[in-house]
TrEMBL record:
Family the entry assigns: Belongs to the class-I aminoacyl-tRNA synthetase family.
Claim: Ligase is one of the keywords in the record: yes
Signal peptide: none
UniProt GO MF annotations: ATP binding; glutamate-tRNA ligase activity
Keywords for this protein: Aminoacyl-tRNA synthetase, ATP-binding, Ligase, Nucleotide-binding, Protein biosynthesis
Protein name (Swiss-Prot/TrEMBL): Glutamyl-Q tRNA(Asp) ligase
């Protein structure tokens, strides 16, 4: 990969390493929402692939990990739309086929914050997982059969898989495509 910016010979030993963007990706096809246009400034930015603390950055690690695991489809939240163009750029730099992507809508608070530990959302209730599974299926606009309460968890999961419809999932909104701090 010739596009990696080397550490400066007169810079600090612990400097970060960035990928020089030569052929940035500004749009990609999402199997749920269709063509997604990313922020051009983010897509063209030389981004860190090796952090100054010596760790490999998320953007590089996730691409290499997914490639060597043979991942062909990635399903994740809409908050990761923007980094996807960086990931596709890395796949191209390595000469690897990029996987297909699906970005699901985010569950958010009334004020628009993503439900997550980071935003101090309450934990999911313990015990019986079925009500939470039903809530998730309804959130994704999936068919829920009457009498689901009588099903065991395994049967409920089989029902969800058998009735899954990607077409029913709400497409992500532009407001959910915010730049993640990575």
């Amino acid at each position: 990969m010739t596009a990696i910016a080397a550490r400066s010979t007169n810079g600090p030993e612990n400097a970060a390493v960035r990928l020089r963007q030569r052929d940035s990706v500004t749009r990609f096809n999402d199997l749920l929402s269709g063509e997604i246009q990313a922020d051009a400034r983010l897509a063209q930015e030389d981004f860190i692939i090796h952090r100054r603390d010596g760790l490999f950055a998320y953007n590089l690690a996730v691409v290499v990990d997914d490639h060597f695991q043979g991942i062909t489809e990635i399903v994740r939240g809409a908050d990761l739309v923007e980094p996807t163009v960086r990931h596709i750029s890395l796949y191209r730099q390595f000469g690897w086929a990029a996987p297909d992507y699906i970005h699901l809508p985010l569950a958010v608070t009334a004020s628009g914050l993503k439900l997550s530990k980071q935003n101090h959302a309450p934990a999911l209730p313990g015990g019986d997982p079925r009500p939470v599974l039903i809530d998730a299926l309804r959130f994704l606009n999936q068919t829920v059969i009457d009498g689901w309460q009588d099903l065991q968890t395994e049967e409920l999961l089989k029902m969800a898989i058998a009735n899954w419809s990607l077409e029913a999932v709400p497409k992500i909104q532009h407001s959910q495509m915010r730049c993640a701090e990575l």
